[in-house]
Amino acid sequence: MFMTIEISKKEQLEFLDAYFLSTAEAIEMLQISKQNFYSLVNRNKIQRIKKNGVVLYFRDEILERLDNQNVLRRKYRPFEYQD
């Protein structure tokens, strides 16, 4: 038998904010264009979660992408970083 845990709406929103981002939040955090973002999603570089028309992204995955972004930019766009 399953056990039901009651949590308030405030706690539910805090959970969502702690673990997930909206499209706009992810784009803003990564500081990339919508086109670039959707390209990453379509190439499965960023996983999306869809439920009843709502699309969310894992916060940890976006933060990891953000951490690796400078390395990736230097690798694939070296002409921007010539010393």
How is this structure best described in words?
It holds the Pfam family HTH_17. This is Helix-turn-helix domain-containing protein. InterPro entries: HTH_17. The structure is a single chain. The protein has 83 residues and is of the alpha+beta class. The chain has one domain. Helix content is 55%, strand content 13%. It is built from 4 helices and 3 strands. The chain has a 3-stranded antiparallel beta sheet with strand order 1-3-2. Strand 2 and strand 3 form a beta hairpin. It is elongated and about 60 Å long. The termini are far apart.
Task: Describe the SSE topology.
Blueprint: H1 9-19, E1 20-21, H2 23-30, H3 34-42, E2 48-51, E3 54-58, H4 59-76
Antiparallel strand pairs: 1-3, 2-3
What proportion strand? 5-15%
Which percent range fits the helix content? Answer: 55-70%
Give the mean pLDDT: 90
Q: Numbering strands along the chain, what is their spatial order in the largest sheet? A: 1-3-2
Q: What is the overall number of helices?
A: 4
Distance between the termini: 64 Å
Structural class: alpha+beta
Q: Which overall shape is indicated by the principal axes computed on the Cα atoms?
A: elongated
- How are helices and strands ordered from N to C? HEHHEEH
Biggest β-sheet description: 3 strands, antiparallel
Low-confidence stretches: none
Number of strands: 3
Work out the radius of gyration.
17 Å
Organism: Listeria kieliensis
Protein name: Helix-turn-helix domain-containing protein
Domain Helix-turn-helix: 20-69
